[in-house]
Amino acid sequence: MGECVRREEGMNRKLKRYLEEEEKTVAKIAELQEHLKTLRIAKKQEEDTEIIRSIRGMKLDGRTLFHVLNGIQDGGIDIQELLKEAESHALSEAEATAEEMQEDNTDALEASESEEENETEE
Fold this sequence. Notes:
Layout: H1 2-57, H2 62-74, H3 79-121
């Protein structure tokens, strides 16, 4: 009979250990689910902030911005097309700036050469 009692105690200890581990695991899962929820909220806020930055970066006047936003919401404006247009516009501005810089450099070089010629003639 003593042997039977020891087996019961051993089984009870084992069962008790499993129950404790199960409780710890459930608590850890709840903690991780809360952490995941927090991460998803933070990700959504960051996405919203990036969208706002992108739209404001378009530098549209109030009325145009209103029409763009309405078009996006009702599906009348294709975002991909809008992005391509914005990228094309930015590229055109960059090319124009590069051309202006090239012209400025050329003008400065010509002015420098002209000064050098005047100095050698004197």
